[in-house]
Amino acid sequence: MQAISLNIETMILVAVWENPFVFQGSFNVTNKHDNTKKLLFFRCECYLKNKADIQNEFLSHDYKFTHLYNEKYAISLSSENELEQALYLLKYALKSTLEKLINNPKQHLIYVDEVAMSRIANQAKDYMINKKKDINDNDIGFAVSIDFVPNENSGKM
């Protein structure tokens, strides 16, 4: 089996801290072996009792993706068993980002209409795919990047 090395950059665009917690944002997944990139947009609900519980042990069932999109279409979550390992990894990346967000809070409360949301989505895409340097990170969300380099067979699968 070929070694895999991924970098997952998670950007939180919206965090609603009322039960269930709701997070919207994107994942930029880079295969470090061949430098291919996939951009995924998500909406996830978190069923923990309070914000501090995010820093406890990671349990995948506490997080549920309600929407997952690549750049062209929605990814069906009805066959979640087929995607179980990939979703587990994305949930773990989200949890790691949320831990850092809680420790480094930068909250901006704004009202966003469809035009403004489209502009923010385009900015996020420019930032994460094209790495445009003229975009201020503080203007579009909170992002964290983690490397994933599995050594055991279950992680490689």
Quick overview:
The protein is of the alpha+beta class.
Written overview of the protein:
- There is one protein chain.
- This protein is 29% helix and 30% strand.
- It has 157 residues and is an alpha+beta fold.
- The chain has a 5-stranded antiparallel sheet with strand order 4-3-2-1-5, sandwiched between helices.
- The chain is globular.
How would you describe this structure in keywords?
157 residues; alpha+beta; five-stranded antiparallel β-sheet; 4 helices
Distance between the termini: 9 Å
Supply the number of helical segments. Answer: 4
| SS content category | alpha+beta
Global geometry: globular
Kindly provide the radius of gyration, computed on alpha-carbon positions and rounded to a whole number of angstroms.
16 Å
Are there runs of 5+ residues with pLDDT below 50, and where? none
Count of individual beta strands? 5
- As a percent range, the share of strand residues is 25-35%
Query: Percent range for helical residues?
Result: 25-40%
Strand arrangement, major sheet: 4-3-2-1-5
Average pLDDT across residues?
80
* Secondary-structure element series: EEEEHHHEH
Main beta-sheet strand count, sense and barrel state: 5 strands, antiparallel
